[in-house]
Amino acid sequence: MATIVYAMLTSLDGYIAGPSGDIDLPVPEEELHQHFNDEMRRTLIALCGRRMYETMRFWDSPEREIAAEEVERDFARAWRETPKIVFSTTLREVGPNARLVNGDAQAVARSLKSQTDGEISISGAELAGHLARAGLIDQYRLYMHPVVLGGGKPYFQSDLSLTLRPLGAKRLAQGVTLLRYAPTRIDN
Hints:
The chain is built from 5 helices and 10 strands. It is an alpha/beta fold.
């Protein structure tokens, strides 16, 4: 059975994007970027909400292969090699190695979880909130940057209530702290 993980960069005040909707967090430098490259390579399937998928499409571009930094080229390869399922009712097509689903995200996640061994990632706060309410997320990974955005898109949706058990913390490059948690129950 797969482990479903929701992992995102976040500010100290809990936002994954700033008030304008832009990802206003510092860009990962080589050491932190390599950590995310390794995480992407461990991911068997990436479940993406529409907005996060559209943001990450940047890595589909052939120009990424001529990026200045090897760590970026490596991430682009890992992104393209990872199968993606994109949940959207507005998109009509998706890029390479991606499948578009406009149906029940919970049913798809349940099926994938039971049929897969390894790690399935979730990208996107709304998709994560939807799957969290169904008890489908096994681990939350908050990569906390030492910045405060003061508002924007929160890591956890405002109407989601969970009780979590700490799994550990790790200091990473650029002052980022990885906090890992497992749900003990959904309080909604």
